Amino acid sequence: MAIARDESSTTQHALPMLLTYLSTLAKSSDAGLQDIAVQEFSALLFGRSSRDQFWRQRSETVAPLIGILQTAAGLKDGGESSANLWRGNGTVRTMGFQGALGAGVGLQLLYHVLLVMWQMSFEAEEIGDELNDEYNIVLLYTHLLRLSPKEKTTRLILSTLYNLLDKNQKSLLPTAVLARLPSLLDNIGSRHLTDPDLLEDMESLKTLLQEYTTTKTTFDEYVAEVEGGHLRWSPPHRSQTFWAENARKIIDYENGEMARKLADIMRKPWDNDKQVLAIACNDVGCLVKEVPEKRHQLEKLGLKRRVMELMQSDDENVRWESLRALGGWLKYSFDQQ
Question: Which residues pair with 100 in a beta bridge?
Answer without folding.
Answer: 106
